[in-house]
Design brief:
Elements (H helix, E strand, L loop, with lengths): L2 H20 L7 H7 L9 H15 L4 H5 L8 H12 L12 H20 L3 H19 L3 H9 L4 H18 L14 H6 L5 H9 L1 H4 L5 H11 L8 H14 L3 H25 L4 H20 L1 H10 L1
Helix pairs in contact: 1-6, 1-9, 6-7, 8-9, 11-14, 13-14, 14-17, 15-16
Length: 318
């Protein structure tokens, strides 16, 4: 594949992924989806497809950098502001709201790859190299620091179509990072041992640690928490992800089922560990960025294996 055709292919791939993250399957995007072969069987019901897209990206797995990088694990904050500044510095137009939304990064990469292809077609090699350099900056500074736990979560979803979208996203980004990956800045590691030894730790602090990807290394969706409650037949109540997890832990202590809840969480964690390890075996060049999340996951494993007495104690006192 020539540099020109490679840039065109990448631009097309990123644009397709942007559409899937923003819209999913609609009357507008279905003809494109049908050509990919990702959808098996009869054409989808578009209302059901819209509902599935909203349930995934609107209610469970939020495609924002801040969710995975910020202390509170919420949309907005410094990560969103940094993304806006990065895109402006690279001259990338924003077509979606929310500067740290994955669709914005995918659209930016599509734009830069398209600009590279145009420059190569016109014989402007200096401009083409500049666009290639801008792609590397956007990948390394905007995408690589947070995309891995998002893609791991996507790979564990029940919806086979979006699992394939996640795999395509991994393949495209991983291959593109093969052009040059920068060593990430060291991110401080939140020690689970400190949480266990802090006398002020309660169920809210435990749930906060488990639900904050920058601490825990994973992302627990609302559906995953609700599914765990159903499996063990425990009430989880209503409310935010945090409140639902707090309710689940409190109920587990009340019914002497804390070990069962923690064992199920460890089983889920192992799927994440397998995902991260598999990616590193497949693309060793990604090790520096994925190992950051592996270390966080190891801390979470330690916490889950040692927190039973703490959960039972704070549940009795809350």
């Amino acid at each position: 594949m020539t540099p020109h055709s490679l840039a065109l292919s990448r631009a097309s791939g990123y644009q397709f992924l942007r559409m899937m993250i923003v819209q999913g399957i609609t009357a507008e995007t279905w003809p494109v989806v049908a050509q990919t072969g990702f959808w098996v069987g009869d054409p989808p019901d578009l209302d059901e497809a819209a509902a599935a897209h909203y349930n995934l990206f609107g209610m469970n797995l939020f495609p924002h950098a801040a969710v995975f990088l910020e202390e509170g694990g919420m949309v907005g904050g410094d990560a969103a502001d940094a993304a806006v500044r990065l895109l402006e510095r690279l001259g990338v137009p924003r077509t979606e709201p929310g500067g740290d939304h994955l669709a914005v990064f995918l659209g930016g990469l599509a734009f830069l790859c398209g600009a590279e292809a145009d420059a190569r077609e016109d014989g402007l090699e200096k401009v083409a190299h500049q666009m290639r350099h801008h792609q590397r900056i956007l990948l390394n500074q905007g995408v690589a620091p947070w995309i891995w736990p998002f893609l791991a979560a996507l790979s564990l979803q029940r919806d086979a179509f979006y699992r394939q979208i996640g795999r395509l996203t991994f393949d495209l980004i991983a291959d593109h990072l093969g052009d040059g990956i920068d060593l990430p800045e060291r991110m401080p590691l939140s020690l689970a041992a400190e949480l266990l030894n802090d006398q002020a730790t309660g169920l809210r602090e435990i749930a906060g640690f488990l639900l904050t990807p920058s601490h825990s290394g994973w992302f627990l969706t609302r559906e995953m928490i609700e599914g765990l409650a159903r499996t063990i037949e425990l009430p989880r109540g209503f409310g935010s992800r945090e409140q639902t997890l707090i309710n689940l832990l409190r109920a587990a202590a009340q019914y002497d089922l804390v070990p069962a809840v923690l064992d199920h969480l460890v089983e889920h964690l192992q799927k994440w560990a397998d995902c991260y390890a598999g990616w590193i075996r497949e693309m060793p060049i990604l090790a520096p960025v994925i190992e950051i999340w592996e270390r966080r996951l190891a801390q979470t494993h330690f916490l889950l294996r040692t927190m039973r007495p703490l959960v039972e104690e704070v549940s009795r006192s809350s």
